[in-house]
Amino acid sequence: MVTDIFRLIEDIKTHLKFSFDEVDKWFDKDNKTLNCKPANGGWTVQQILEHIYLTNFYLLILIEKGSKKAMRNYLHLDLNLEIKNYSFDKEKFEKIGSYGAFEWIRPEHMEPKGELNLTEIRSLIAQQYHQCLSYLDLMKSGEGLLCKTTMTVNELGKINVYEYIYFLSLHAQRHVIQMRNNELEIS
């Protein structure tokens, strides 16, 4: 359990960098790897990359709302008390980053439609990474604890803005594993 809020923020930044760097490597794969349909009928690597972008897009809407509310709540709530009483339960989130660890039907608006090319998706995902960092910089003193929003995936329940950003990073990690599985089928 992480209780030092500054360490938590740095840990999330490190996780984000790792996840986004791993995702970015997939844009350089050859067409065969990018477009191979796995035997289980799942998505191609290109579709997975689009799904990561779409999921980030919708999560970042919630993260933006949460960060604005957290900054407003800073004026009325005792941040020091929130920090003192907070402990990060990393275990609760671990399954999110493991492909196939639980069943969840994603909303239709997060399914790839093939409307964007790889260059556009890569650029948008890079922008999303910087958005995450800017929210962490905005809430650099623990303010992200001051707003909680319900996360239905794997019954996580009410999570704060930092945990939402961590969830976003874990989601990308989950799909890196899926892309590796696709690539293994080709070899």
UniProtKB/TrEMBL annotation:
This is DinB-like domain-containing protein. It comes from the Bacteria. It comes from Chryseobacterium aquaticum. Residues 32-179 form the DinB-like domain. The lineage of its organism: Bacteria, Pseudomonadati, Bacteroidota, Flavobacteriia, Flavobacteriales. InterPro entries: DinB-like, DinB/YfiT-like.
